[in-house]
Amino acid sequence: MRTAAAARASHWTPGRLERTNARSLNVMNSLDLDRAAQTFAESVDFTVGVEEEFSILEAGTLEMLPRFEELRAAADADPVLQDAVAGELISSEIEIISGAGRDLHDALARQRERRRRLFALAGAHGVLLGATGTHPWADYREQPIIATEHYRRVEEGLKYVAWRNNTFSLHIHLGVRDIDRAVRVCDRLRPVLPLLLAISANSPFLDGRDSGLHSARTQAFTKSFPRCGIPDAFGGWAAYREYIEFLLRTNSIVEFTQVWWSVRPHVAFGTVEVRICDAQATAQESDALAALMVACAAQATRDLDEGVPFEDPPPRLVEENMWRAIRYGMSGRMIDLQRGEEYPSRGAIERLAEWTAPVRGELGIDVAFPERNGAERQRRMIEAGASREDVFAASVQETKETYSQEVAV
Question: Taking the model in full, what pTM does it have?
Answer without folding.
Answer: 0.92
